[in-house]
Amino acid sequence: MKFPELMKKPAVVGTLAGIIGIILGLLWGWVVQPVQWKDAPPSLLASNYQEEYLRMAIDSYKLNQDVATAQRRYQAVGANGNEILNTIANNQGNQDPVAILNFVGVVEPGGLSAPSTGGDGGTPTKLPILKYVIIALILLVVGVIGYMLARLLRPLIKKSGEQTPAQQAQQISRQTEKTDFTELNEENPVFQMLNTYVLGDDLYTHSMDVNSADGSYLGQCGLEISDTVPVFDKPKRVRAIGVWLFGLKYKETTWAILMPPEAYDNSTLRDRLRVKGEPVRVEPNLVVEIETRELKMHVKIVKVEYGQGATPEDDYYKNLTLELAVWPKIVAPE
Description:
With 334 residues, the chain is α+β, with helices and mostly antiparallel strands. It has helices spanning 3-6, 10-32, 47-64, 67-76, 81-90, 97-107, 123-153, 165-175, 261-264, 267-274; strands at 191-198, 205-211, 217-228, 238-247, 252-259, 278-281, 287-291, 295-307, 316-328.
């Protein structure tokens, strides 16, 4: 699928917008205007810097014997203080062991607790970044879902009061009379419906179940856009609509591709679409037969109106009303 066609899909647009937003946000936050730390408390430092801070506090206390300052500096390290002080006591390095014990005596009069086994003290510094990533992902998901819901739940009537193409199609189908097959001395179909395409219904696609008279599932039938004139403005100019019939028993699907006369006469276009199904030159009141081994469907061209493109093969549908009728076929036992 070409990129311009992908960009017409709401989910793709929403996802790309979210990804681009995250990338721009990260570039702004980390490159253009990064956070400038000033007078940050020791509790926000990584564990190795917190250890250096406490070692300096121990040396300072050794010189000035200021108990209040020692306690304040120790408390500033936060929840990791006891664990880091344990590390210093067990890895004294070049420091005076007596100075370390004296410092411990004033900041932890009850003695040091056993070292924690739950990971290193640097983990808390990673949490803010992780938190922001999670928030960004949540915002992305909420944005995509919100955009899709807005598309699905938007009012069916435009602000001007004009009906949407899908509504116009429904109204045309309701106002069109179905064929009475009993008057033609034919058996009534197990499935019969009228369906209309109107220019501007860019999401035109339908799929319907076919059930027997007793409610047994026999298969499905449906319609969808098969080809459009290659222009990127809206609405799409549809020049081929695919009609398909699926039979459950043999898992067969048969297609017919309905094309305006001028588009059908373009052999290159016709051959390209033949890969999907049999091309059909559309004319008013034409009945197209589509069959599988167990089902047959009559597709009647009830009404059709064309629009003219830049070239004859670019002719497209302004509207197309079809009648679909399906009957089960008598299948010889295997």
